[in-house]
Structure formats: C-alpha cells, structure tokens
Structure prediction request, 202 residues.
Amino acid sequence: MLRLYGSAKSRAIRVLWMLSELGIPCEHKDWLPRSPETRTAEFYALNPNYRVPVIDDDGFVLTESMAINLYLAKKHRSPLYPSDPQQEALAWQWSIWEIDRLDRQIVNYCRHTRDLPEGERKPEVAEAAWKEVVASFDVLERALTKSAWLAGPAFSVADLNVAAALYRALTLDLSKWPHLKAWFYRCWERPAAKKTRAMREQ
Prediction:
C-alpha cells in the first residue's frame, strides 16, 4: 500500500486531495513539517531535505508535492492527467509556474498579515509578497478568461496542483479577479477537495 508522509496542514494537502480524487487508499503518516518524526535517520533516508510530503509507493520513494501528483495521476491513468501532449505540457507548465510565482509569495503574505504573532509580522515583507501575488493572480485571470480550466477542457492535475497550493486564498478577497475566483471555487467545491479541506481544518 502507498504510504504518505505529511500532514494536511502542510503541502501534503495537495497529495491528499489527489489521492481522494483517485480513490487510492494509503497509509497516512500525519506528520507536521519540522516535527520530531521528520528529524530521524529513518526519515532522512527517505528525504535528505527533511521535508514533507514524501510518498513510498511500494518501494518507489518520491518527494515534492507537484511531482508526486503528476506521477500519481499518470500512473493510475486518471482522466486528470491529460493524454494530449500539449495539454500535458500545460499541466507541467502551470505546476512549475505556481512553485516559482505563488507558492512562497502567498505564504509570506499570509504569515506577515495574520498567521504570525503580531510582534513578529513584517509589513514590508507582506507588501512585497502581495505585489507578487497580485501580478500572478493577473496572469491566472488572463489565462482563465480564455479557458475555464488550465490544461484542457476539463479539471485536471494542473487545476488541482495550483488550486491546492493556493489554499490560503480561500480567505482572500478575489473579487478583482472574477474568472480566477470562479475557477478557484469550482475546484474547491469538488467532493475530494472538501474532504481534504476538512482534514486540514479539523
């Protein structure tokens, strides 16, 4: 059985969502980032970065949530993995783009506006991060004006990877980006997404 290391309160939320979409059972090690369990020699052997998520798929060990989801969707021949080479390329494009353009930026914005204790927040970090978030939201808005989904005519691993990574946007005002907002909530209204969100927020 596939084993997943990582809490829903980490980037493992993306993998949990994918596993739910695919209907794949797993042994779930609900470990938070930087928890004692991730500082052991055993975990280091799985991931020398000491980070979650990690999967062990019958001896095949893989790290990095975006790569894990692309692998799982393709391995299980899911409709979520585009069969058309151009749409497949778009799924990779958007997954990689999100890591570069939004992943850390939205985390920094939320940390320095609400998540950290007030005395630890740095307004200048929040302001710089928000400028990058806005620019990236503008890119998504433009793309979603042309197509309802990011990599083809239906919801795919591209949409899941980007929407899951933007979990914190569920608390943001997205009204400036109507196409982005509509797409984002279509993604998070999926049954697998609701199930995974409940795991994070319990």
Notes: Residues 85-190 form a domain with the Glutathione S-transferase Yfyf (Class Pi); Chain A, domain 2 fold (CATH 1.20.1050.10). Residues 117 and 195 are 29 Å apart (CA to CA). The chain has two domains: 3-78, 85-190.
